[in-house]
C-alpha cells in the first residue's frame, strides 16, 4: 500500500538524483544568463513536484500511520534535506559545484509544492 501511493514520488526522487549528479560536461551548453535563469526555474519546479508528490503519497497511504499523520512536515523535511544533499554531492562531480542560489530555489520550490497541495486538497 505504501509503494502504491508513493511510486511516483520515489521515481521523481530517483530522477532528481540522476539529473543532479550528472557531470557538468553532459549538461547542455547555453548562454550563461539563460542557463542561470533556466537552472533556477528547473530547481524550483523539480522540488515543488517532489514535495507535492511526497505529501500526497504520505497522506493517502495507510501502511505507516506516522507518515500519514505527519505527511507535510516529513515531506518538507525530506525534500529540503534531499536538496541539500544533492547540492553537496555536486561538489564531488566534475564541472559541478554547490550553489547557494540552487539551494534557495530548491527551498522555495519545496514550499510551493506544499502550497499547491494545500490549495488543491484542503480548500
- Helix/strand/pairing category: mainly alpha
Low-confidence stretches: none
DSSP helix fraction: over 70%
Enumerate how many helices there are, as a single number: 5
Protein traits:
single chain, 123 residues, mainly alpha, 5 helices, 0% strand, globular
What does this structure look like?
- It contains 5 helices and no strands.
- With 123 residues, it is mainly α.
- The model has no long low-confidence stretch (mean pLDDT 89).
- The protein is 76% helix and 0% strand.
- The protein is globular, with a radius of gyration of 15 Å.
What's the short version?
The protein is an all-alpha fold and 123 residues long.
How would you summarize the topology of this molecule?
Blueprint: H1 2-20, H2 32-60, H3 65-69, H4 71-89, H5 100-121
Helix pairs in contact: 1-2, 2-4, 2-5, 4-5
Amino acid at each position: 500500500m505504501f509503494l502504491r501511493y508513493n511510486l511516483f514520488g520515489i521515481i521523481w526522487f530517483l530522477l532528481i538524483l540522476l539529473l543532479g549528479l550528472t557531470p557538468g560536461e553532459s549538461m547542455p551548453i547555453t548562454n550563461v544568463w539563460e542557463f542561470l535563469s533556466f537552472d533556477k526555474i528547473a530547481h524550483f519546479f523539480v522540488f515543488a513536484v517532489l514535495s507535492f508528490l511526497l505529501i500526497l503519497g504520505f497522506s493517502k497511504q495507510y501502511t505507516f500511520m506516522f507518515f500519514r499523520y505527519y505527511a507535510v512536515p516529513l515531506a518538507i523535511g525530506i525534500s529540503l534535506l534531499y536538496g541539500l544533499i544533492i547540492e553537496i554531492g555536486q561538489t564531488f562531480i566534475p564541472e559541478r559545484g554547490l550553489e547557494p542560489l540552487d539551494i534557495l530555489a530548491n527551498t522555495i520550490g519545496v514550499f510551493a509544492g506544499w502550497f499547491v497541495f494545500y490549495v488543491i486538497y484542503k480548500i
